[in-house]
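Practice problem 4.
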């Protein structure tokens, strides 16, 4: 689970003094995202390399740029043997959420033969999880979570 990887990453962030200060709203929102992330399985052998949280702005607010939430993004290094299609199958079998969208396209020529670039977007209640495997051929994966981001 992401929880084990997060513990090591959080310790490293605190130890290096890189914890960003923000408002209480940001802090509680991101903490809720982190709690959600603990429920997401990690592909075997994947190693978390980075965690970031970015604000989401209200779409009709060009002048005021009102923050309506935060997306927390986890970046992973995948094992060298992992293909995008294999990792996508892993999440389709283990993430028992409603699959809202599966974006699939051919992988670049440098990828393994038959591999695809894949993005899987899931919702459960108000929560969203996006599994981005566009760079799986480079042994990279991103998982984005938002505990209150589903609009369906």
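Answer key:
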């Amino acid at each position: 689970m992401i929880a084990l990887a997060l513990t090591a990453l959080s310790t490293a962030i605190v130890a290096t003094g890189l914890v960003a200060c923000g408002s209480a709203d940001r802090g509680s929102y991101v903490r809720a995202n982190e709690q959600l992330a603990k429920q997401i399985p990690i592909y075997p052998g994947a190693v978390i390399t980075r965690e970031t949280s970015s604000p989401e702005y209200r779409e009709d607010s060009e002048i005021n740029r009102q923050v309506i939430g935060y997306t927390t993004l986890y970046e992973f290094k995948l094992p060298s043997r992992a293909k995008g299609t294999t990792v996508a199958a892993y999440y389709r079998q283990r993430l028992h959420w409603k699959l809202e969208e599966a974006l699939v396209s051919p992988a670049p020529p440098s990828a393994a033969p038959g591999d695809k670039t894949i993005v899987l977007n899931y919702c459960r209640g108000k929560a969203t999880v996006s599994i981005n495997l566009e760079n799986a051929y480079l042994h990279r994966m991103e998982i984005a979570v938002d505990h209150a981001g589903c609009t369906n």
